[in-house]
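Q&A log
Question type: sequence-to-structure
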Amino acid sequence: MTDAPIKKQSPWDTLNVKQKLFVLSYIQHGLNGSKAYKDTYKIVSDDTARASSARLLAKANVKRAVQEKLDTIWKERENQAGRTLNEIMALAFSDINDIVEIKNDTLKIKDLKRIDSRAIQSIKYTETPEGTVTTSVTLHSKVQALTLLSKILNMIQDRVEHSGVIEILPAIRPKQISEEGGV
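Response status: OK
Response body:
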């Protein structure tokens, strides 16, 4: 006989359909229980919605289901933030030499299946009436990507916060300095 692991039931799975709708609506409405209750149960009275949502949110399985959904949303946001940061870094640290090579004064694009092409904004092929083909590769702005990355990493600050007291003193004019025996 083997000891099979017991799968713990998710708080979400303990809810009935209306409770699940309430939890989703509660999160959608910015954790506003009254709005979520009205939305789910079609209650018109504010007092009834407020009291009923408080009772519903006091239930342990509903609380755990809300927390479970919020945790899932948070993890998804963290993943999205990580993917976004990777995309910005791909643009910021891109190198045209990874994408093209010049042979015999001819620009040749490397195999797109083998390179990181995220930095490429456009590739243009133009042909002259004489049959000469011109290739043009434009990359996304490295400067913009580096600036954005620097801001994300707090290397550049749009504003400086100051805590403490700033004392503003009246300006001393040259005439005042000479009268006071200064310079």
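Response note: The longest strand covers residues 120-127.
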